[in-house]
Amino acid sequence: MSGVNRCMNGNCVFSWALWLLILLILVLAVDGVADDAPGWIVSCRIVEVEEIAVREMELLDSLGYECGVLWIPDWPSLGSYEGWMVYVGPVDSRDEAEQVSFGLLWRFPDARGTFVDEYPSSCGCAPAPDTMNDLTGLFPPTQDFMHSVALPGSWEVSMEVLGHDSLDEWDRSVHISQRLPGWKIEEWEDIYLGTVEVRAVREGAQINAQLFERECRYLRDAAEALGTGVFEETGKYILLHRLPDPGERNGDTDFWAVLSGDSIEYGYRCRSFYGEMPYSWRSIPAEARESLLPLAFDSDEGAIDILYNRLTMDEVYDRESMDDFSYGIEYMDGWELDVYRDYRDIAIREVHRCGGSGDPDTAPIVDRFRIYSNSGEILWWHPLYGEYLPYRELLAFKDLNVPNMSK
What we know:
The protein is of the alpha+beta class and 407 residues long. It folds into four domains: 1-36; 39-125, 2-Layer Sandwich (Alpha-Beta Plaits), CATH 3.30.70; 132-289, no CATH class; 300-397, no CATH class.
């Protein structure tokens, strides 16, 4: 009996030791998971292939984010879906996860704050914005693009009616300022007609260069679809101009993106509604027209020089005739001389001297052109159609070679 008892006691000791070992392993395993639990992160993308997840993580790493990849079934709080999660973090709180997600929406439209833990639970937060095309990740060149969705009040929206109180309501403009996480957006509106100018600026973000390249690709594609060109300097700025069309509500508009140092600016300008200048344009302050876009010229003489050089290069007229022409500013828009314009209208006229073949009291028109100050883009006034057309139409009209006019 004593032998049996000893065996039983030995088995009992062995059993207890085994249970203690199993318990110790479980405790260590739980502790290990808890130590490795990311906590609050920003889930950027979920994919089924690990190699794709790693490539996305490498992109985030190149943009300066602390990031990683995890296997979803390893974390009960995420559910049982078998896939790889690409994430940014960890971060300290739900609020920080929400803020970080704002800056990722342009690249990861499903980005959202997520709490990762070893316990079965579900805790997440989606970023607030669903307009501004998710924080200027993309501004499509379409009419009224700023007003597709109302702006949440949490975006610190402020509005100010400009101009003296003695002015009629329709002679006053409205300044709307929005401060979003990472962005400052300034908008100026005509009370009745809508948006005149918008500028969105983000400073010091490491993803600005990537965002700028994405904007450039989109605007090039949009320009091709619209049948117009873009003016750009690689790595610095790009500008798409929708040509004037009196029959279109927003008939003369610009969309641009500028990368300056570590800052990016995206802008929109509407010069006319149904061919008419916004009533309040003169009451809009000068800062509404300030931009990071470089100027091709800032004077009448500068505009004339650009036109003269282009006409000379393309041999539109013979050189002797060009020296006998006069070049002057003659606006065709019908607006007062003191209103703001970001273009010059230039008239080329014949000069008849005394003793010559022409009447010295007349100066017949040769051609008319419009030149935009930001791009140096040249439009030609078609004498039969009575409207401004792309410069290439002049060359086709005169049966000359048509160059690529995009910069």
